[in-house]
Amino acid sequence: MDFLNNILNSDSDFSSLLKNIEKNRLPIACTGLSSVHKAVVISAIHSLTNRKIAVITPDESSAAEITNDLLSLKTDCINLPSRDYCIGDIEGYSKEYEHKRTDTLSKLLGGDFAVLSLSLDAALQYTLPPEKLKSANFTLKSGDTISTADLISKLIGSGYVRTDICEGLGTFSVRGGIFDIYPTSSSNPYRLEFWGDEIDTISPFDPDTQRRGDAVDEIQITPAQEVLYDNTLLEKLKELDFYFDQKDSLDRTALDIAKTSKNEKFIDLLELSNIKIGE
Known about the structure:
This protein is α/β, with parallel strands linked by helices. The chain has helices at 2-9, 12-22, 35-49, 60-72, 96-110, 120-124, 130-136, 148-157, 231-239, 250-260, 264-272, and strands at 53-57, 77-80, 115-119, 138-141, 161-162, 171-175, 178-181, 190-195, 198-204, 218-221. The strands form three sheets. The protein has a five-stranded mixed sheet with strand order 5-6-7-8-9, covered by helices on one side. A three-stranded parallel sheet has the order 1-3-2. The protein is elongated and about 65 Å long. Residues 243-253, 257-267 and 269-279 have low confidence and may be disordered.
């Protein structure tokens, strides 16, 4: 897109905007641009300054629109959708947007992006602390040594659910020395074959036909949900004599607690799990 950058550089207003950004004379306003022209200017600013940019829009539709415009300009733009709260029965509840959020948050953590787009609502919502998000992200490589018990524990700690058959995002299954995982950031599940405690091979496979593809060296595991279980939180719940089924969402549990008590122990629990509960 060099020709667009050259055109913009010849414009005095854009040159003034760019100089102020480079000298950190901020905040600065730029008005009168249509949606696609905003994308062109944002793309040019990133290209010419090599700075990462966060674009906050009024709503979800405008965030999606500017994301598509930037991607069409070959600018690596990721979108953080707003969190979809479930206040009813969670059986059969889709976690598509939660998976998109954890995937985007993981890319933010690694700096693997040029522009981030998000709505104002998404910008104001609480999420995982960076240190907890980092601990829930990990890489599995061919040749790594890890027991199946430890891997199960790590996956559950990252919000994955153990099932009989691995066929949905955020699930895994274990059959002897064969370990199937469906990472939330992947378009297909992977089969890990163990030789003792060593990962012998890692291959993608088709969940319908079970046919495997070519082996890969490694896969990246990103969290399957934003509220993660850990031993500290579980112990806190035990202190409260509060039991929740593994299938239940911790968000729902915290909401139930918040509705029924103002006790300091409950407040500590909510702060510990980093959940924002409205008044």
